[in-house]
Amino acid sequence: MKIASVMILMVLTVFLVPAYSLQTTNTLTVMVNVQSSFALIVNSDSFDFSRLMPGQTGEIARAEGIVVAGASSGGNPWYLKVSAVKPLSSGSDFISNENFSWYSSTEGKGESFGSAEKSFSDPSNTAYISSLDEANSSEKVVNKFKFKLFVPEETKPGYYTTTVMFTMTE
Amino acid sequence: MKIRNPKSKILNKSKILNSKFNHWSLVIGICLVIGAWSLVIPAYALSINIDPSNIRIVQKPGETKSGSIIVQNSSSAGIKLKTYTEDWVYAPDGSKSFIKPGSSVYSCSNWIVLDTATFELAPNEGKKISFKITEPKNSSGGHVSVVFFESTVDVREGIAVAGRIGTIIYQDTEGDIKRAGEIKDLSVLASEEGTPVSVKFYFQNNGNTHISARPKISITKDNKTVAETEIKPINTLPADKGAGLATFTAPLKEGSYKAQVELKFDDKTLKSQADFTIKKTSTK
Fold first, then answer.
1. Of A96, A156, B162, B229, which is most buried, counting CB atoms within 10 Å of its CB?
2. CATH-assigned architecture of domain B48-173
3. Residues B96, A35: C-beta atoms closer than 8 Å
């Protein structure tokens, strides 16, 4: 059965290949819609400081922090910002954003603004500006963020929460 | 009542066991492949791609135009997204500061109607989000907005981490757009041989719409270019003054030089130049 199949294939090859080789020119139109890349990637949807006492400072436990990557092929520099959408709150009690801070490191070639610790109360919340090259390649540019929280002495006990937002635009 | 043959039951059982074994080996195999894959590809909570990252719309007052943005979930998990518009203005570092819709004089956020406010994307699913923008009859000049796609997270413990990515909207009124500007306060910070030379300037937007000016800075000596660089575009809204800074680290020898700034936008080219001197290295 197998031998028969091989024989048929050989016969077809012998007859068909010259038939195709007789043809001179064929035009084949190939169309492809290549999407541009403008992507934001975040490796986690939460983090924790665990239990903290008033007067204590805590740091995100995860060694690598929150990994945020951006990629673009659009040609325009892109910006990555980090903000806390509201102060950490537990019911009506809250911890001011002055006590909540971030810092970051980058694997990119653009401008990083996170080498020094920055409070979330600082209105200048740009973390990274891509280089011109990074704005033109679709390669991921990785930034790693870490967070610190100081719990003021007068803070009432409770479970405090907020949302840290990463924003990416041109 | 159906009575089964106990022998056939045993045979069937062994068949079932065999098929179960095959199923389990398949399941284990798939798990091993996924496990190995997950070691290579890190898991991401959020991975979204949008296309395009900016849209320019030209329309007449009173006219409605349509547009669309493709949102792709590139992660291995489903995501919930909300979409909305915001205003923006330029921050001193050239980034955009996002503010409430309708709060900027150059806002077109409230002119935009998105076809959905929330949606879900399955792993690797894409969706086209359509919108309509209607320019009021009495408006003129250029306007801006951003369409954001924001992940919604339901974290009850700990601090939630969300991400949002935006398509910048530039809106121009047909027949009523003026793109004009000037280079201001060109200055050169240079001292002696071997030290870096910094060229600083501002671009003043004197038009009535957004301008993205592409700068080229060169240093010439005796009409010959000795150094040249291109820096990031200077983006401005009307009446904005955007800063440009180029630093040349290649050492220049003692002598007289010219720093030339060339800014291009649309079909316009603005030029400005400043003389400076490099002194001989001081010896103690």
1. B162
2. Sandwich (2.60)
3. no
